[in-house]
């Protein structure tokens, strides 16, 4: 039996802020084996809306507060999330045929 852990994907939540009515742009990058996964981009109207979504996905403020602060300051940032969190945030689509 081979060890497939080296091929397990890692998911990164990417966050940046731009102009417009929904300035918080959130996406999911997939590092490693990406077959069967596709990252999705979502936009949020406010920092509060984004924080509520993160907390509903059971991501603790300790993990995301610096990222939100940095994004509000005009910096792009990211932090690791797991597949379950990415799915709860609707940041990833899985190919059910895989």
Q: How do the strands and helices of this protein lay out in sequence?
A:
Blueprint: E1 10-17, E2 24-31, E3 37-39, E4 41-44, H1 47-56, H2 61-72, E5 77-81, H3 83-88, E6 92-94
Antiparallel strand pairs: 1-2, 1-5, 2-4, 3-6
Helix pairs in contact: 1-2
Q: Encode the helix/strand succession as letters.
A: EEEEHHEHE
Radius of gyration equals 14 Å
- What is the molecular shape? globular
Q: How much helicity do the residues have?
A: 25-40%
Mean pLDDT across residues: 88
Helix count from the secondary structure assignment: 3
User: Helix/strand/pairing class, anyone?
Assistant: alpha+beta
The largest sheet is:
4 strands, antiparallel
Poorly predicted runs of 5 or more residues = none
Strand content range:
25-35%
- In the sheet with the most strands, the strands line up as 4-2-1-5
Distance between the termini: 21 Å
The number of distinct β-strands equals 6
């Amino acid at each position: 039996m081979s060890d497939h852990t080296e091929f397990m994907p890692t998911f990164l939540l990417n966050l940046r802020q731009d102009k417009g009515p929904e300035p918080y742009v959130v996406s999911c990058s997939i590092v490693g084996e990406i077959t069967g996964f596709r990252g999705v981009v979502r936009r949020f109207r406010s920092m509060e809306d984004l924080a509520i979504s993160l907390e509903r996905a059971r991501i603790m403020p300790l993990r995301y507060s610096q990222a939100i602060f940095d994004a509000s300051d005009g910096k792009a940032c990211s932090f690791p999330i797991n597949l379950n969190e990415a799915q709860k945030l609707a940041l990833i689509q899985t190919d059910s045929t895989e």
